[in-house]
Design goal:
By secondary structure, the chain is an alpha/beta fold. The chain is built from eight helices and eight strands. A five-stranded parallel beta sheet has the order 5-4-6-7-8, with helices on both faces. Strands 1-3-2 form a three-stranded antiparallel beta sheet. A hairpin with a 2-residue loop joins strand 2 and strand 3. The longest helix is centred in the last third of the chain and has 57 residues. The chain is flat and about 105 Å long.
């Protein structure tokens, strides 16, 4: 697993925190110093926490479970959507639908509604609708797609959340905490790291910093998925080899039985004397 270097983090501006007056005291262990009224994050601490988080993310992906990415802030949404699409994980980059985790059944109803509209469009009932009715339904479908498109295939609650800026995504964090879902998050100097299970002290405002941390997370997940695929293929190959070996053994035994039957001397017929 590729490790993010100190120089890469320095170049991306991962170390830049917020103004001193905006800090959260719980971030004190991760702050290196103050410069011109701005807190500077200790990148060695960031490196250690990032490595810990990526190892855990890799294991979750390797076990076949889903990780939901949450990033609705302007500078993060496109970066996250682009990176997460590659690993086929769910993500929320528009407004967080309240109760998405704690009221997951309702969200699933909305997803089913979207599927029902798609199905209706393939039937004759769609052709019988007026232009106005079609337009209204298509607008409703577009709205659902915008809010739920990336989580449409999520049939169950995610096994973990990855959050960019826990202050902005406080509702998502709160819901995950209620359900004891592990939270991985980028935490800036104005955030409370005690709210998440795997805090990654880093600048959650700069696009370069977000891209570096998110890419490290998605790369770890991709490795976990690749290892899972390899393990599954190996298991299938072993099962196939075992089956073939069993069949070959059975065929061998049948051949032996046939050969044995051919070699067996035929019983002589005795003629009765008069």
């Amino acid at each position: 697993m590729a490790q993010v270097t100190f120089d890469q983090m320095l170049e991306a501006g991962v170390h830049f925190g917020h103004l001193k007056r905006k800090w959260n005291p719980n971030m004190a262990p991760y702050i290196f110093m103050e410069r011109n009224g701005i807190h500077i994050i200790d990148l060695y601490k960031t490196q250690a926490k990032l490595e810990e988080a990526t190892k855990a993310l890799k294991q979750i992906a390797k076990s076949g479970r889903k990780i939901l990415f949450v990033a609705t802030k302007k500078q993060a949404k496109d970066i996250v959507a682009e990176a997460v699409k590659k690993i086929n994980m769910p993500y929320v980059t528009e407004r967080w639908p309240g109760g998405m985790l704690t009221n997951f059944a309702t969200i699933r109803k909305a997803v089913r509604k979207m599927a029902a509209i798609d199905k209706m469009k393939t039937t004759s009932a769609w052709d019988n609708l007026s232009k106005r009715e079609k337009l209204q339904i298509e607008r409703e479908r577009a709205k659902l797609e915008k809010n739920l498109g990336s989580i449409a295939d999520m049939n169950r609650l995610p096994s973990a959340l990855f959050v960019v800026d826990i202050n902005k995504e406080h509702i998502a964090v709160s819901e995950a905490r209620k359900l004891n879902i592990p939270i991985f998050a980028m935490v800036d100097t104005n955030s409370d790291p005690t709210l998440v299970d795997f805090p990654i002290p880093s600048n959650d405002d700069a696009s370069k910093s977000i891209a570096l941390i998110v890419n490290a997370a998605t790369q770890a997940i991709a490795e976990g998925l690749a290892e899972r695929k390899m393990a599954r293929e190996k298991k299938e190959a072993e099962a196939k080899a075992k089956k073939e070996s069993k069949e070959a053994k059975k065929e061998g035994e049948e051949v032996k039985e046939e050969a044995k039957a051919e070699k067996k001397p035929k019983a002589k017929k005795t003629v009765a004397k008069k």
